[in-house]
Amino acid sequence: MVTILDYGAGNLTSVRLAFERLGETPRIISEAAQYAGGRIVFPGVGSAGSGMAGLRARGFDALLRGAVRDGVPVLGVCLGMQLLLAASEEDGGTEGLGLIPGQCKAFDRAKAPEDKIPHMGWNTVRHAEGHPLFAGIAQEEAFYFVHSYFAAPERPEDTLGQTAYCGERFAAALGHGALAGVQFHPERSGAAGARLLANFLTWEGKPCC
Amino acid sequence: MLLKRLIVCLDVRNGRVTKGVRFKGNVDVGDPVEMAARYCAEGADELVFYDITASAEGRRCDLGMVARAARALSVPFSVGGGIRGVEDMRAALLAGADKVSLNSLAVDNPAILAEGARAFGRQCVVLGMDARRVGPSAAIPSGYEVVVRGGRQPTGRDAVAWAREAVELGAGEICLNAIDTDGVREGYELDITRQVSDAVGVPVIASGGAGKPSHLVDVLTQGHADAALVASMVHTMGYTCPAIKEALHAAGIPVRIPRHA
To answer: Which of A46, A185, B203, B239 is placed for a possible disulfide with B226 were both Cys, Cβ 3.0 to 4.6 Å?
Structure first.
């Protein structure tokens, strides 16, 4: 069973429909008390500050900490991935969930004046071989991105995939234990994105086979 | 590396994709969602649905079609036509559209761009702009004037100045349609595409004039466009998305070639 967290950070329609195309009917909950077990998807668009406020107001911060402790597979998408980190530069500095050490930084156009912000469109991902989330996905496969901040985890082993943009090679996918996050939108990334979501549905929450 | 996008546009008239044929009215080409799903499976990077009769007939955007598209498509899509304000934008986005394209409405009421960006994020707000070549003048230094209502009404505004203003207000992307080359199939209008793309810090989609793959190569290189929009090339002229992508790839343009279906 897949549970999608609705914490007021954008529209969940496309994430829900992507799972439905895989034959899965996700349960969408808007407060922690409604959680009835199963893997958790944690999407979101918008700013880090209002995202964190929305998570806390619904008790989802504690739910996610508990899930991580219990080894329940969790997938953060876009803002959801960014909030896994300890902090974000967005909104004048925002405290994140701190489930993965590191922070979220703003792209700096001074490093690559040709590159437009937000980073919007299809870009390629080089993934760490062997993680079950990327099983069957080719190296340099393209995924769809829309974001202006990027994840900079402290521990190199927490980076599951990298993408180059605006003078950075940033973490396009993060993972630690049963926790994973992707900066791109698998629900909008064609067959490769569908494969990643299907991999998540069968993932046991271990970093390797 | 950020890839250049191939975007397929579906003009929808009364729920069907049609193609205008000069002096002969419109020919029915198919169901928009079925066609979009096929292009998506073939490797189109994004789809655009324009309800070209909604505004003229005072109808809202067809939310049933948007919801069907959202169920069927695994790549981003935008909708335009029949959007009359922020509530219509919200309804289209909640039905599953990724972006909403605003054209005449944004010219009449530029504040809608700021309202939309504030409510949904600028990545959801696309400025659709039709530009006509008029030659440079003091009022129109770029040489291209913004026209509205399907090209019938001039606005006296400079296309580059309007693009800059729209981005400042909140547009997260510009779909630039050149009226002079639209439907002519002899290539995109490279001059205005490059001017607009160089003037703004958001992606620019070139539209109007694609007749063969080398036209896309030209606009994605010389025209500085981030994405190229095609319609009749794939609807009726026999080109396929994979063939166009192959031609772009062969010309050294980075594009997405899906590696598994």
So the answer is: B203
- CA contacts within 13 A on the Cβ side of A56: 10
Candidates A116, A121, A190; nearest CB to B5: A121
List the beta bridge partners of residue A77.
A182
- Of A156, A188, A153, A204, which is closest to residue A78 (Cα–Cα)? A188
β-bridge mates for residue A153, sequence order: A102
Nearest residue to B51 (alpha-carbon basis) of B25, B84, B15? B15
Burial A145-173 (b: 16+ CB within 10 A, else e): bbbbbbbebeeeebbbbbbbbbebebbbb
Residue B255 covered by a domain = no
Question: What is the per-residue pLDDT across A18-40, written as a single tens digit (0 to 9) for each?
Answer: 999 999 999 999 999 999 999 99
Domain count, chain A: 1
Annotation says B45 is catalytic: no
Please, which residues bridge with residue A100 across strands?
A85
Contact of B226 with B6, CB cutoff 8 Å: no
At residue A96, φ and ψ (nearest 5 deg) are -95, -165
pLDDT over 70 percentage in chain B: 97
Nearest residue, CB atoms, A188 vs list B98, B121, B202: B98
CATH code assigned at B193: 3.20.20.70
Q: For residue B154, count other CB atoms closer than 10 A to its CB.
A: 13
